[in-house]
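Quick entry, no commentary yet.
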Amino acid sequence: MKKSFTLFFTVLIALVFSGCAPFFIRNGEPVIISNSQRTEDNTRNKTTNNGSITIDSINSRLTDGIIYDISRDGDYLLVGTQTESPPNESGDPAEIFYNLSTYDFQTNQPNPLLYSSKNQANGLIDFKNKGYYYLEFNQEGNTQEFSARLLWSDLEGDTTKNISSSSESISPGFSMINDDLVIYGNQQGEIKLVNHQRTLFNPDGTSHTYKMTKRLPIARIDFLEKHDIAFFMAYNQDSRSYDLYYVYLTKENPEPVLIQKNVYHFDLSNQKNSLLYSTAGEKDTQKLVRLDILDNTRTTLREGYIGLFSFNRTGDKIIYSEKSDSASNSQNLWFMDVDGNSQTQLASNLNITGDRIVFHPYKTTVYFTVFTLSEENSENRRISYSVYMIDYSTSTD
């Protein structure tokens, strides 16, 4: 049963956290796109005065694992890696878990963090680079049911604290707001703001719970602090899909407001007061939509076979992956400005997975996860993950 849970967890992090990126596709090496190459699709040849992008280099397989975050000083990455349990006296085969590690750019070496026999995922480095938040998944009995709790640990592994209670199963997607606040949701439809620093020294009275007027099992959440607005995806039992909501956290029992039904993924730019999400389009396609939060206007930026996407750190550019057609087995990686113009293809033939693309804090560099499948038979086929890196530069027209 442990083996089946490991497989289940692998599929979970590759699919549920991936923004619906394709999964079972052929192995392949990335192809860097020539800077002079442009697509023949006229809809991609719009130009603005926002500048052009030049691809400088690509590093495939920078390190093994699934990328989650980069430190604020840009010195190291936080990645999830496969870890084998120590051998025991009975001679049972080693079990495989997903634990977190760092990748140091100075030494070019991975550094394991806190070993656990429970799967760890979705880590975020705290703003002061002192530790990291992460989810710990626990199997429920002898079933494939699982629950997740949120923890914080320092980088030395000396101190680990529960952020969420052990009795609640929280949302796979949580967010850091500032130096002290973290926001997450749970399956009971509650939203919680937790003061990190106080939690380390005084577990009582350090979180604020908002019980919404509707019980919506939350899967992913983020917060626009300056306007007290939380945005979240919740599972719809009737449609068997995820819907996107916003809610003002100004009272104890806030009323959630529907933004869009049938949403696959979203990203929030606090700098630009903008929300980016993908939703169902014509046939099997998805629409990539940008919502201006302050004036409530929506712009469809792209319709196609959209995978993963994200704002850059300043919120003036968008990176996204897309299949060329529904039958394609690979994805292409694109940059564009927030109006959908000045589209530049970065690379092609990528098997992208994970739940985020990570931008360097001060360099024009992006990091993302690519998976490969072993050539063994389907029963014993193993999935491996690697972090890729692309350096690019921008110029003003």
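second:
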Amino acid sequence: MKSNLLKAGVLLFAVSSFLFTSCSENDDSQDVNDTSVELTAEDSRQAAIAQETSDGVYDIVESAYVEQEEEARNTSFFSDCVIITVSSENGITFVTLDFGLGCQLNNGNVLSGKINITYGPVQNGTRTINYSFENFTFNGKGVEGGATIFRERNNAAGNPQSTVNKDIVVSFPSGLTVDVSATREFEWIEGVGTGTWVDNAYLVTGNRTVNASTGFTQYGIITDALRREATCPFFVSGAVEVSRNAGMGILDFGDGTCDNLATLTVNGNEHVIILN
């Protein structure tokens, strides 16, 4: 369902990023490709970049937590320009990731500012993790808000799993702001315990609502679990049902090939979407 094109290396995570776009991150005025039933490519592009950023940030937080608490790694997710500070008080652990004025991670993302992470003790094999931001940017976009993670060391299948409830605002250089509210589950299905991040793979389920300062609201629910691989900036398979007002479409990420294409189907018409 997707063309066999090369993809840039990662998100995400983005997951990561995510959804549908046919232009670069820094161009917020791309022409609309599909105006049917109010589900447009421009709206989808904005939602895509915001979701990609949101998932990319989650990848950072999860990697920091795993490296501190669950798995000693021979190959760290973090480059030397990140200053990681860890302290504890009354059973609460505080982790600060300081990216300074600019720092490139080992997966290629460029960050600045700080992410603040807190969590308490493990209770019945689970832990609650919170994170927030301080003057933080992700690939040139401002990020505010935060999220709560319910972390299970072993789910019913024996895999680590995180349920993430987040409300994150992404600010573009143009002045556009996009609020991403989401509940998503990330199941870590490959690469557990190998001592490196590059072989990690996840299945992602859940939903999200995107509200943009331009006035549109778009809802998405994952109908076929999305597969995310640490070395790929895009989901490699799975499907999302997206809707705005009366319009509805299905975004299909394909058969597992790592490329930058997805297929958006609206009213039986297919549109090839080029991801960031």
